[in-house]
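Appendix B, Record 12. Input sequence as logged:
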Amino acid sequence: MISATVGRGVLLGAVALSLLAVPARAATGEADTPAAAALPAPDPVGLAAALRSAVDRGAPGALARIDDQGRTFEAARGVADRSSRRALTTDDRFRVGSVTKTLTAVVLLQLADEDRLTLDAPVNRYLPGLLPDDRITVRDVLSHRSGLYDYTKDLFADSVSGFEAVRNKVFTYRQLVDLSLKKPLTNEPGAAYSYSNTNFVVAGMLIEKLTGHSVRTEYENRIFGPLKLRDTFYVHPSTAIPGRYARGYLTPDQGGEPLVDATDQTVSWAQSAGAIISSARDLDVFYGALLGGKLLSAARLGEMERFTPVDGTTAYGLGLRRRDLSCGVSVYGHTGVVQGYYTYAFASVDGSRSLTAVANTSNNGKVLDALAGALEAGFCGGGAAKG
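Logged structural output:
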């Protein structure tokens, strides 16, 4: 697809927004789906306001990109690097944190499509003796219903000292699982939703056992390559982000303390639960393809979208979140938190519109809440509820 820049630009404060327009469906002759037609137009002013609010509340920078059936809305505010003061752009790469979980789930669901995995089989069938309860199934792991304790609660009880202790450490998957198993199960397997990074460490182990390849190889062969994700990498245990990227800054627990540059880290404490690097464009492409039915069979995508309520506005499927917005629209994707970065990456139910929003800080709830406004602007348009 060839993109052409429409001859208009909008400058709002320090936020530059651009609109690129090539109607992809018109080019292919496809008709708009009912779900796509029902969405209100994105609200660029509201998008800019959400990013401005994130920066005002403590993020060095914030960015967002919307892909909408061939049109692209982009916005960025603030800096990518506090030392050089380089402006943040929507082309900058960043650590996606738990958005990784969706990609990990897709690989396992593709293996299920290939009859190499049964979702309702015990994990211990494939990884004998790993878990303390044979009732824990692959589905339980992917839906956070296993009861496996989240070891990161102990690692990061103190944000900065916990991070510095693991910044350059390299863990094996088994070491991370063993950290979890020091604590009892939080609930009976399958009984309740309880978010735990341990689940997606186990998922990574399953991928490597069933394929005989590293998770990196499987991500590259099954997702990065086929979707031509040019900015997406799994570099563990390297600490470097390839190419042009935004530096990430961890907010200390104590107010008034300076931000900690957390950019360089192995992310070995997360691996298949949170170590992927990407860009806003690539995440938009990924979620558009996933929800558009290009990565999984209809049956597997349906299972991925079998949601368990989490709270009044969110639910969780298999490595996939549903978020219900103020205008009644539900979007599907994942949030990501890793030291120095917050990410929202979501798409409409049919994948025709996708949005990624990022702030280059973490451990700041006010920034996270502000960034959520990008979803409202992106999918609810000018009719979004104003907080």
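Residues 25 and 31 are 7 Å apart (CA to CA).
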